[in-house]
Amino acid sequence: MSFLRRTETAKTIPAPYVFPPSGTFDGNDGSWSTFMISVGDAQADGHSGQNFKVHISTGGSVVTIPAQADWCNEPDKDSCAEGRGIQTFDAKQSLGFASSSSGSWQEIGIYNLPLPAAVELYPDLRPNATYGHDTVGLGADSTLSPMLTGQLVAQIITEDFFMGVFGLSNTPLGIGGGPIDTFLSDFQNANQTPSLAYGYQAGAKYREWPRNTAGVLGSLTLGGYDQSRFSGHGISVPMPPGNSSLIVGVQSITVAPDPNIESNVYSMTAGTSGFLATIDSTLPYLWLPDAICDAIADRFRLTYDNNTNLYTVNDTSHSYNYNQNATMTFTIGSGPNPSNNVASIVLPYAALDLTASFPIYDDATKYFPLKRSPTGIFVLGRALLQETYLIVNYEKKNFTVAPANFTNPMPESHIVTIYPASYVPPSTTKKSGLSTGAKAGIGAGCGVLGLILIGLAIWFFIRRRRNRNKPAAPPPPSEIDTLVAGTEVKKRRISEL
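^ Acid protease, sequence as received from the core. Prediction below:
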């Protein structure tokens, strides 16, 4: 289904849209819970798009999907394309988005990809993409999936982005002659979500229990949040003026081995000051200051690879880290200086024990999602959001960071609506429910009754004067018990007009 833009007079507030995950964990830089989208409209019938599994980007505002790439041929083209999240199309494995097969594709041109906070990537320092407008649907292509026409889509070939991403940022991208509205903005204008807001948690493959052997899938709610997916103390952080980036203060980072192994807690930020960092789930990495990278690398016995700029973990180090079973805690506040209002995000070693495969490495290689920042701009990537629930409200210019909730079994969803900033709750004052005519009739009846009562009063007054000189009659016996009368009065029905 496609949607028209919401009019200013629309009064119905829609329910939040729960975007279901694909049900699988995918990626060449770890196992990440993905979401299914459809792009294009091959038959011009509104439900003949191409399906893709994608990651969620809290920092990007574009729908990015993989196009066919010559390098994607290991172990073969079909398997590589499937690994990139490209689904079958026309009853065969597609090798990438075919814009020529979409009747609704309108190309804009080739432009650079907006990188997370201007960090440098590998192997392409400044990868680009072919941009255009096309139909985008949430979920696999179907007449039941919500779809929007004319959405900004970027086709990627670069190895830096093995899979596509679905951008949640509300920052318009200024390409092709002017700012282009985001999917989230258009989705709200189409009255499909109550507000420019969302709640997101990346999921965690390593959270496996006897009754939950497949890990915990990601959670994404547009226009609301799932209260069951976070716990503990969270913090609300204002967005910078004129900037919708999710910038937090990292006040400290500590590493604590399993208490049964060692009782010490080690500071990774000793001798350094706190720093500002952007939460951006586009990529998994934690871009941190060099001194902190060195401290973490020493504690986890990591090896720096100058070719890929990754910290790898050899078998000996992995065995050591597995036995230590350490946790790494990020103390996060609204600013970098120490404060009492903070959220503690605790990453178990399992959240940092990742595997990189083709095309990063020909053979699967264990690595730690730590990166040096060549620009002095720091980013907390997808790895952090495995243990973090994020609530973002672009209308009120703030966001909340809270520890993710993991219980065995996981609780039922509890979806809470985030209302638009202009929303005025309905009045709670009780009303009679009577029409104006009914009220007027009651008023007239009361007036007639008043005249009758006045007439009776005059009649009793005259009668009393006539009987004033007659001998008084004995009082009649009481027929009403005062206790019962009191009960009857209490039970009397009173109408509220």
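Residues 436-466 form the longest helix (31 residues).
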